[in-house]
């Protein structure tokens, strides 16, 4: 069994999800959101994200982590701030010696729903179906669990290829 941490980075809300994977079985462990105060300076908000993610890494001891890639939007300032949060999300597991993978939103949707054009509601519905024990209080947590599920699928495929196992 391997424990995976999925992260959906955001400066205001960073979603996180922890799953255990044994073969093709997925088991929900925990999920939630790290929220920062929008009235506080960006460096302080990044420190809050860092501290929250470090606590998760120490508490749940994931073996691997996966982070959703940032999409570029029309507002350059918002994209830059999202990039800061994503940098923290990549750095924290790396500092703990945890391998980190990155997946685009379309890859995550394809892995969980079957199509890269899936809506947020479809992704959350499939996450709830795949992880019935998940509590999911915010869409950010659902997205983070979807990132973890995506990594579990990609990881399983990579292990099969490395082991020379043919899939029917």
From TrEMBL:
<dbReference type="InterPro" id="IPR012337">
    <property type="entry name" value="RNaseH-like_sf"/>
</dbReference>
<feature type="binding site">
    <location>
        <position position="68"/>
    </location>
    <ligand>
        <name>Mg(2+) 2</name>
    </ligand>
</feature>
<dbReference type="GO" id="GO:0009432">
    <property type="term" value="P:SOS response"/>
</dbReference>
<dbReference type="GO" id="GO:0048476">
    <property type="term" value="C:Holliday junction resolvase complex"/>
</dbReference>
<keyword id="KW-0378">Hydrolase</keyword>
<dbReference type="InterPro" id="IPR002176">
    <property type="entry name" value="X-over_junc_endoDNase_RuvC"/>
</dbReference>
<comment type="subunit">
    <text>Homodimer which binds Holliday junction (HJ) DNA. The HJ becomes 2-fold symmetrical on binding to RuvC with unstacked arms; it has a different conformation from HJ DNA in complex with RuvA. In the full resolvosome a probable DNA-RuvA(4)-RuvB(12)-RuvC(2) complex forms which resolves the HJ.</text>
</comment>
<comment type="function">
    <text>The RuvA-RuvB-RuvC complex processes Holliday junction (HJ) DNA during genetic recombination and DNA repair. Endonuclease that resolves HJ intermediates. Cleaves cruciform DNA by making single-stranded nicks across the HJ at symmetrical positions within the homologous arms, yielding a 5'-phosphate and a 3'-hydroxyl group; requires a central core of homology in the junction. The consensus cleavage sequence is 5'-(A/T)TT(C/G)-3'. Cleavage occurs on the 3'-side of the TT dinucleotide at the point of strand exchange.</text>
</comment>
<keyword id="KW-0963">Cytoplasm</keyword>
<protein>
    <recommendedName>
        <fullName>Crossover junction endodeoxyribonuclease RuvC</fullName>
        <ecNumber>3.1.21.10</ecNumber>
    </recommendedName>
</protein>
<dbReference type="GO" id="GO:0000287">
    <property type="term" value="F:magnesium ion binding"/>
</dbReference>
<dbReference type="Pfam" id="PF02075">
    <property type="entry name" value="RuvC"/>
</dbReference>
<dbReference type="InterPro" id="IPR020563">
    <property type="entry name" value="X-over_junc_endoDNase_Mg_BS"/>
</dbReference>
<keyword id="KW-0227">DNA damage</keyword>
<dbReference type="GO" id="GO:0006310">
    <property type="term" value="P:DNA recombination"/>
</dbReference>
<keyword id="KW-0255">Endonuclease</keyword>
<keyword id="KW-0460">Magnesium</keyword>
<dbReference type="GO" id="GO:0008821">
    <property type="term" value="F:crossover junction DNA endonuclease activity"/>
</dbReference>
<dbReference type="GO" id="GO:0005737">
    <property type="term" value="C:cytoplasm"/>
</dbReference>
<feature type="binding site">
    <location>
        <position position="8"/>
    </location>
    <ligand>
        <name>Mg(2+) 1</name>
    </ligand>
</feature>
<comment type="similarity">
    <text>Belongs to the RuvC family.</text>
</comment>
<dbReference type="GO" id="GO:0003677">
    <property type="term" value="F:DNA binding"/>
</dbReference>
<feature type="active site">
    <location>
        <position position="8"/>
    </location>
</feature>
<keyword id="KW-0234">DNA repair</keyword>
<keyword id="KW-0479">Metal-binding</keyword>
<keyword id="KW-0238">DNA-binding</keyword>
<keyword id="KW-0233">DNA recombination</keyword>
<keyword id="KW-0540">Nuclease</keyword>
<dbReference type="InterPro" id="IPR036397">
    <property type="entry name" value="RNaseH_sf"/>
</dbReference>
<feature type="binding site">
    <location>
        <position position="140"/>
    </location>
    <ligand>
        <name>Mg(2+) 1</name>
    </ligand>
</feature>
<feature type="active site">
    <location>
        <position position="140"/>
    </location>
</feature>
<feature type="active site">
    <location>
        <position position="68"/>
    </location>
</feature>
<dbReference type="GO" id="GO:0006281">
    <property type="term" value="P:DNA repair"/>
</dbReference>
């Amino acid at each position: 069994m391997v424990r995976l941490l999925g992260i959906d980075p955001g400066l205001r809300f960073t979603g996180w999800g922890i799953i255990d994977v044994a073969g093709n079985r997925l088991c929900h462990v925990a999920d939630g959101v790290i929220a920062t105060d929008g009235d506080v300076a960006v460096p302080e908000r990044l420190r809050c994200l860092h501290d929250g993610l470090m606590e998760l890494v120490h508490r749940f001891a994931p073996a691997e982590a996966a982070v959703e890639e940032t999409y570029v939007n029309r507002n350059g300032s918002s994209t830059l701030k999202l990039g800061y949060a994503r940098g923290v999300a990549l750095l924290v597991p790396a500092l703990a010696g945890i391998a980190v993978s990155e997946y685009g939103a379309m890859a995550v949707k394809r892995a969980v729903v079957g199509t890269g054009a899936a809506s947020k509601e479809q992704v959350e519905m499939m996450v709830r179906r795949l992880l019935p024990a998940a509590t999911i209080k915010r869409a950010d947590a659902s997205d983070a669990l979807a990132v973890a599920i995506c990594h579990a699928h990609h990881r399983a495929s990579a292990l099969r290829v490395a082991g020379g196992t043919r899939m029917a």
